[in-house]
Amino acid sequence: MLSRNQNTMQIHPEQTVGELVAQDYHSAEVFNQYGIDFCCGGKKTLAMACAEKSVAFEALSQALGEALAGSGLPSENAANWPADFLAEYIVQTHHRYLRDALPFLIQYTAKIAKVHGTRHPELKIVEKQVRLLAEDLVAHLAKEEQVLFPYIKMLDTARRENDPVAPPPFGTAQNPIRMMEYEHESAGAILENLRELTQEFTPPQDACTSYRVTFAKLRELDQDLRWHIHLENNILFPKALMIEQQLQNQN
Q1: 42: closest CA among 75, 69, 18?
Q2: Is the separation of the CB atoms in 17 and 42 below 8 Å?
Q3: Model pTM?
């Protein structure tokens, strides 16, 4: 666990990346700077993440401590939110964002691939990757909104009202959660491919306005989706499993 001593954060190598971001979202900015995945890779310890990225733990620890020292409003910390509220927040904020952003990106990656694809052939791969990401995410969002999230909301309501919950048709929340995490990993792999193909979404010197806008939107999507996945993998899903276990123990 994090400990505060006169506003100084103590960082330990065996903490996981996801735990740290769950406790204070400001740490995500530091992990981004060091290229450390805090969403799909959130279960890795800081020591493991540093080893994979050839980052000195002392340097990462210092950067995290500086970033976290002045932060900490409770309203900024999703780990404090009830599971049903967090699920609805994800739908209204991040799912809605994706449904707005993905059609735009499909259109504009196709446009810049057609106009600039000869000089920048990687754009044709970017276009295909965006289409694949969109297809996967549309199905993924539907499964969360129609199956998993309603069950999570029912669990949280039952916990508050001390009511029993009928067993779901999928047995336990662990089963759809495992599938959602697998699909998150697939989305994370596509995001990583896009970052590599675009040099971290950096447009070339000859990029037109549409080219630059598209890359800016891709960067925004990357940031939003990584935070979105973090909220689910590292906060919402563990909350849901804990509540389900508590209710099962009461029966």
Answers
A1: 18
A2: yes
A3: 0.78
